[in-house]
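no rush on this but wanted to send it before i forget. what follows is a protein written twice so to speak, once as letters and once as structure tokens for the fold. mainly i need to know what kind of three dimensional shape the backbone takes. thanks a lot i owe you, the record is right below.
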Amino acid sequence: APLKVADDQIGSPTYTKDLANAIKVLLSTINYQLSTALYGVYHITNSGYCSWYEFAKQIIQISNLKLIPVKSEQFPRPAKRPHNSRLENFVYNETFRKPLRSWKEAVKDYLKL
């Protein structure tokens, strides 16, 4: 049977390894002697965004599974999910001038393709 995946929920997939490295960069700004550090709210995600369908499609691209995009209503959940949960990495990107790699590159690294 083909795999059905929602195509109307957009987000920013993020590899925990990339997130951990970015947090390490943020922590490196702390100067305990001077009690200084960067502050504020930082959204940190891999670059780009996609639907759950596009994310699954990227993951199973090399398999023989069939993937079918469907609407979220076909997956009743106890909590309502937003159709768009992308985050903007504006503060992180402006501060460090080096955005995280794309989510597609991160998936390839995770899957070791």
